[in-house]
Amino acid sequence: MKKYIIFFFSLIIFFSCEENNPNEVNVYSKRHYQVDIKQYENFEKLTGIKVNVIKAGDDELLERLKNEGKNSPADLYVTVDAGKLQKGVEMGLFQKINSDVIESNVSDDLKDINGFWIPITYRARLLVYSNERVKKSELSTYEDLANDKWKGRLLVRSSSNAYNQALMSSLYANLGEEAITDWSSGVVRNFARDPKGNDRDQVKAIAAGQGDVAIVNSYYIGLLLSSEKQSEVDAGNSVSVFFPNQGESERGTHINISGFAMTKNAPNKENAMKLLEYLTGIEAQNTYVNNSYEYPANPMVKPSNLVQSWGSFKRDNLDLNALGIYREDAIKIFDKTGWK
Ligand code: FE
User: Fold this and answer.
1) pLDDT tens digits, residue range 236-266?
2) Residue 143 in 3-state DSSP?
3) Which helix (H) or strand (E) holds 119?
């Protein structure tokens, strides 16, 4: 009997030790896409490393990392905006990521020049237009959206959204304060309605005839067209995709990355590195493009067939950290020009 009791207690000790030093990696995530669950399950199957995810808004997660300091259980922070990654760097929350594997997996022009964050995917904030009421030849640049010809026809979500703040930051960096103040005023004058809803809702509003042109992230068109809801498929089919600022002398379409940073005191650093190497590798990159319709950060991988059908495009090659550096200035422009 005594033997069994000893065995029983050693089992308890064994499992509680396991719990103190588990094979895991902890991710604080702003990403809100189904594909991530699949990626983390695949990674666990491959490596035995469990990915624990805590989801919240960017500002909340960054604040939490700051408050937790050295005691934070988080190894990685992932978001959908280089601007928020830059903000975290500025707050001193991250350490540099050194990996030859990641270095060779990822396109050079998508990388952080300071080495603190790494991209997994990118997305274009582009225009979609009504197939019924707009001709492609009427569209050209972001700047042109301030033209009177779009009066009462533009749809876009609120300025509190990071995607719009990143776009405005890119315009600030490229065009300067004066030009974009005029631009923003013109765009607000052309609104079909007060900003509301998310990117998908802007496309649905075009389908419902409430406006003709919307500013949205590229992958939402893929998500609508592959939706189980017929109304979403119909909305996706009511529009076409347009990449602005593609002329020879123009800077290209605004892009943003989705990317990871490693926390300063990552308790599971090795596992975190393995996860990043996996996510930038060919298998996981294919999983991203075919499920979330984002563009791959790894140039060896092609976008999904649907996304390829839109054609290739010139990306604005602005240093993506500018999307954070000019953020406060961008928000002031929104406020000053009445973009709600
Ligand atoms: Fe999104």
Assistant:
1) 999 999 999 999 999 999 999 999 999 999 9
2) helix
3) strand 117-130
The Å distance, Cα 123 to ligand 1 centre, comes to 9
What is the Å distance from ligand 1's center to 197 Cα? 12
Residue 233 scores a pLDDT above 70:
yes
Ligand 1 centroid vs 215 CA: distance in angstroms?
Answer: 13
Q: How far is CA 39 from the centre of its chain?
A: 16
Counting Cα atoms < 13 Å in the Cβ hemisphere of 9 gives: 5
Inform me whether the pLDDT recorded for 44 exceeds 60: yes
Quickly list H helices, 226-316: 230-237, 269-279, 282-291, 305-309
Distance 90 CA to ligand 1 centre (A): 24
> How far away, in angstroms, is 3 Cα from ligand 1 center?
58
Contact yes or no for 217/123 (Cβ under 8 A): yes
Tokens of 218: 């590229």
Q: What is the pLDDT of residues 106-153, one digit of tens each?
A: 999 999 999 999 999 999 999 999 999 999 999 999 999 999 999 999
